[in-house]
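Title: Comparing notes on inverse folding

I've been comparing how different people in this forum approach sequence design from structure. To keep things fair, I'm posting one structure and asking everyone to reply with a full sequence. Here's the target:
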């Protein structure tokens, strides 16, 4: 038996990682630690919540005493750390929340791992899940490799860069067996509809404006969330300590082209003439500090650990749109905030 802590497991990517680990590794005990912020939703894990190897713990990684107690109670062998404030626009509004969760929260988890494992790191692992946004912005050419210098521009990416530095420092200073991966933009089921793809699917369905930042010329490299979860599995089990891997779909899209594809797919599925909803496109003021282009070179991960993306983007987008259209209740629930009221009542009364 191994005790594995997954932080942020009620969020978008975390819920796919929790599901994968609970189903694939019945001999691991999976502990999902999540604060259930607006982005955390236990509905995402309904199908596995009764599995015997799964436990949910509501808690905040910024609370160092609580984290240390939790580690001593459950004697974790491994940590897969995904809990974070993750939305760039929110980080522009409220950077301190990002410093607290992304930097202080990560250091609390590092300290607790170090305290629990002392200097015996046999079979232990601290896996920090990070973003390609730490590398800053590319021009029209080139790719981020694991050697690209950090150059974050948003409070979100700066806080993730800070946490990455702490994770590496704990490896170099204390020998903590860490691994880091930096992934490109994810899409797929269960993503909170503040990020581009689910927000726009929801707005197309409801005939609401589609706010395109600037001219829609920014480029992102999109990866299906389950491919990311599979990469996390491969890296967690096989990466040598101290290593970093870039994860990406080799799938660059200019925002405006992606939006037009999305409109076509959603319109078709709603029985509208494909392209009708282009009238909803509204160009708005650009995001402050908006990075022009992200593109990942994931050849290290592909060559060393044999991972590769499984889905073509057109296929992934079809599956994603189908999921949101078939889960309108999930969408209505998270956009209305009803589920948060429910959690507040349920957990504050305990
Ligand atoms: P998300 O916002 O959907 O989920 C984050 C989860 O963390 C939520 O369940 C939230 O409740 C929880 N959380 C937030 N603050 C917490 C705290 N103080 N204590 C405990 N739990 C807390 O995020 P996501 O998109 O699933 O991203 C997960 C991780 O992957 C993040 O670390 C993010 O930086 C990284 N990442 C995301 C993407 C992407 O495209 N979404 C790409 C690369 C890397
Ligand atoms: P987002 O999903 O917020 O991811 P990130 O900023 O982490 O890459 O945004 C993806 C791209 O879409 C990014 O270039 C910003 C742009 N965007 C819009 O044009 N309009 C929107 O309403 C949102 C949320 C994003």
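Reply #1:
Here's my take.
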């Amino acid at each position: 038996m191994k005790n594995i802590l997954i932080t942020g497991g009620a969020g978008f990517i975390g819920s796919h990682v929790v599901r994968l680990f609970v189903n694939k590794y019945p001999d691991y005990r999976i502990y999902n630690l999540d604060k259930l912020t607006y982005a955390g939703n236990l509905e995402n894990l309904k199908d596995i919540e009764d599995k015997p190897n799964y436990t949910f713990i509501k808690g905040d990684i910024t609370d160092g005493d609580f984290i240390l107690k939790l580690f001593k109670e459950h004697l974790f062998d491994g940590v897969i750390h995904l809990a974070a404030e993750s939305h760039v626009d929110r980080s522009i509004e409220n950077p301190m929340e990002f410093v607290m969760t992304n930097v202080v929260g990560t250091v609390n988890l590092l300290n607790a791992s170090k305290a629990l494992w002392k200097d015996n790191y046999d079979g232990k692992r601290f896996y920090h899940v990070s973003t390609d946004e730490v590398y800053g912005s590319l021009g029209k050419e080139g790719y981020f490799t694991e050697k690209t210098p950090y150059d974050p521009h948003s409070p979100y990416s700066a806080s993730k860069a800070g946490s990455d530095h702490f994770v590496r420092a704990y490896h170099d200073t204390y020998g903590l067996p860490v691994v880091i991966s930096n992934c490109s933009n994810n899409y797929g089921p269960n993503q909170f509809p503040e990020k581009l793809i689910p927000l726009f699917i929801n707005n197309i369905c409801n005939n609401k404006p589609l706010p395109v930042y600037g001219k829609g010329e920014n480029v992102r490299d999109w990866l299906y969330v389950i491919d990311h979860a599979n990469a996390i599995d491969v890296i967690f089990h096989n990466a040598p300590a101290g290593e970093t891997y870039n994860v990406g779909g080799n799938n660059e899209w200019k925002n405006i082209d992606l939006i037009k594809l999305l409109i076509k797919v959603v319109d078709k599925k709603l029985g509208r003439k494909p392209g009708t909803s282009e009238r909803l496109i509204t160009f708005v003021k650009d995001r402050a500090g908006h990075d022009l282009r992200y593109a990942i070179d994931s050849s290290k991960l592909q060559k060393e650990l044999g991972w590769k993306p499984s889905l073509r983007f057109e296929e992934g987008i079809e599956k994603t749109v189908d999921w949101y259209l078939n889960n309108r209740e999930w969408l209505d629930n998270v956009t209305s905030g009803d589920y948060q009221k429910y959690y507040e009542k349920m957990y504050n009364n305990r």
